[in-house]
From TrEMBL:
PROSITE patterns: ABC_TM1F (PS50929), ABC_TRANSPORTER_1 (PS00211), ABC_TRANSPORTER_2 (PS50893). The keyword Cell membrane applies. Its main location: membrane. It comes from Paraburkholderia kururiensis. PANTHER family: ATP-BINDING CASSETTE SUB-FAMILY B MEMBER 10, MITOCHONDRIAL, ATP-DEPENDENT PERMEASE MDL1, MITOCHONDRIAL. This is ABC transporter ATP-binding protein.
Length: 586
């Protein structure tokens, strides 16, 4: 094993143990119960020796009843301690898993948008659900049982040495071989489980993508249902095969453990008989007590070895979980970030020499862009496909941070502003709005949880979607369906707009927000937006130029640079790129 690998494993072990640290006080009762159960368990064989060597040969019924009563008391106390220990450890284990799920989920929410564009959603779901779920047995049961068994092994080993050190050393001779087998099997299963979890993530991704509404529509309209079933079958077969391998790997080696534990009592009896024949001090009671202690030693020891294998197996899951937790956060809030009250927000926006390049790209997506957007004005950003319009929207919403220059709201660099202030300042409606599979009202209230029914209706009227919702049998209680498929593309955009209107932000960013609307609805919505835009800064990113003719300022982008700026009439008369775009759509 290399020094790097050894250090990495210790680092993971420290991180795993750190998960238990917040519950150290609650967990303190568990070792106490373990110690009590271990002492009680060790006392039992010594009581049995007295019964065999004293009470039975002498026919002392009173002594026999007393010793039997002690055995019953020991059994009862051990059972009670075990029950309390199980309850406490399970409760703590579930709390640790809860903390880990929340920690991973919260960390993922703060990763750069590029992480989500490059990662399958099914893979993310598998890490949170399957990987963390796979740790349940380890954290809630195995770890505690391993600690309990370890205390039993230590106490029993001491008792065996006290009882007869010669037979004890004979028993201990098999332990190094068992430990080596455990190490060998653990390495095999760790590698298999790592591959198994990758295939489970593939399976989760296949289910998420192919059984969504969009996936079903695509498969049926292209006649690829059988193809999808074949791919799912192959992946499921791989998962099943790896599951079998993960449980069967090292079974032949592990059978040697059971063999050694099974023949040891016979060898102990043989050794005891030999000692007696040689005239060495030895009693039948001592032999029986030793065999009883051997069972108390080796079956807990076998559980410890099995737990070691499970820990190595679980380490493959921890590696995957920590891999996500170690990914750098893309967007962070600086210490002492500026917080603005809604009353103090004016809606002034300024881009100063902004530059941005996507990771792995050959050139910048945005290069040296400077735009002044006075509060209350309407600015449109247009350009051919790939000119950087949507990237600019991402930067304005701080889904990415600029790599050069700065973006300011009311004179404050967006990186110096609290995230809560930014979300209060800016409302965004995208070309592909997202709706939860919940009611219309719940989707609207996602932006403002305390909004009244009257506020919902008012926002929907502004977005020209109230009549559509009101005509449904359940009105605003109607579920929108997976991905909002109950509604048309234009209706989903208007619902998303209503959701943003409900927040009443000083700055409104519309990224192709009317692309799915018909001409009549677009005209009605344009009138509504004109009314909404009063005393509000509006930034429209559009491909359909009919929506930006009345903008105070039109910015034309090409290959990430500003090539023209002005109002509609001046840009048309200039006969540049904007005039070409207008001509191509007429």
């Amino acid at each position: 094993m290399s020094r790097h690998t050894h250090a990495a494993r210790h680092a993971y072990l420290r991180r795993i143990l750190a998960l238990f640290k917040p519950y150290s006080l609650q967990f303190a009762v568990v070792p106490a119960l373990m110690l009590f159960a271990s002492i009680a368990g060790v006392a039992g064989p010594f009581v049995i020796r007295r019964i065999i060597d004293e009470a039975l040969p002498k026919g002392d019924l009173r002594l026999l009843l007393g010793l039997v009563a002690v055995l019953v008391a020991i059994a009862a106390a051990t059972a009670i301690a075990s029950t309390i220990q199980t309850f406490v450890s399970t409760r703590i284990g579930q709390a640790i898993l809860h903390d880990l799920r929340v920690r991973v989920y919260g960390h993922l929410q703060n990763l750069s948008l590029s992480f989500f564009t490059n990662t399958r959603s099914g893979e993310i779901q598998a890490r949170i659900a399957s990987d963390i779920g796979g740790l349940q047995a380890l954290i809630t049961h195995t770890a505690v049982e391993a600690a309990r068994n370890a205390s039993v092994v230590v106490m029993t080993s001491v008792a065996m040495l006290v009882l007869d050190w010669r037979l004890a050393l004979l028993s201990f001779a098999v332990i190094p071989g068992l430990a080596w087998l455990q190490y060998r099997i653990g390495l095999m299963r760790e590698a298999i489980v790592h591959e198994q979890q990758k295939r489970i993530a593939d399976l989760s991704s296949t289910i998420h993508e192919s059984l969504s509404v969009g996936g079903i529509v695509l498969a049926r309209t292209t006649g690829r249902l059988r193809h999808l079933l074949g791919g799912f079958t192959r992946t499921s077969r791989d998962v099943a095969h790896l599951e079998v391998r993960s449980h069967s790997a090292g079974q032949w080696e592990w059978s040697l453990v059971y063999f050694a534990l099974s023949v040891l009592p016979a060898l102990t009896l043989l050794a005891g008989a030999t000692f007696m024949n040689l005239g060495m001090p030895m009693t039948i009671g001592t032999l029986v007590a030793m065999i009883t202690l051997q069972e108390q030693l080796f079956w807990p020891l076998e559980e410890i070895l099995a737990a070691g294998i499970e820990l190595r197996t679980a380490r493959a899951l921890f590696v995957r979980i920590f891999d996500y937790l170690d990914k750098p956060v893309g967007i962070t809030e600086r210490p002492h970030a500026v917080t603005l009250s809604r009353a103090a927000m004016r809606g002034d926006v300024r881009l100063d020499n902004v530059t941005f390049r996507y990771e792995g790209s050959d050139g910048p997506a945005i290069c040296g862009v400077s735009i002044d957007i006075p509060a209350g004005s309407h600015v449109a950003i247009v350009g051919p496909t790939g000119s950087g319009k949507t990237t600019l929207a991402y930067l304005l919403a701080r889904l990415y941070d600029v790599q050069g220059g700065r973006i300011c709201y009311d004179g404050i660099d967006v990186r110096d502003m609290s995230l809560a202030s930014l979300t209060d300042m800016l409302g965004v409606v995208t070309q592909q709005p997202y709706l939860f599979n919940a009611s219309v009202a719940d989707n609207l209230r996602f932006a403002k949880p305390d909004a009244s029914d009257d506020e919902l209706i008012a926002a929907a009227r502004v977005a020209q979607v109230h009549d559509v919702v009101a005509s449904l049998p359940q009105g605003y209680a109607t579920r929108v369906g997976e991905g909002g498929y109950r509604f048309s593309g234009g209706e989903k955009q208007r619902l998303a707009l209503a959701r943003t209107v409900l927040r009443n932000p000083p700055v409104l960013l519309l990224d192709e927000a009317t692309s799915a609307l018909d001409t009549r609805t677009e005209r009605l919505l344009a009138d509504a937006l004109d009314a909404l835009a009063k005393n509000r800064t509006t930034i429209t990113i559009a491909h359909r130029l009919s929506t930006v003719r009345n903008a105070d300022q039109i910015i034309v982008l090409d290959r990430g640079r500003v090539v023209e700026r002005g109002d509609h009439e001046s840009l048309v008369s200039h006969c540049g790129m904007y005039a070409e775009l207008v001509g191509s759509m007429s």
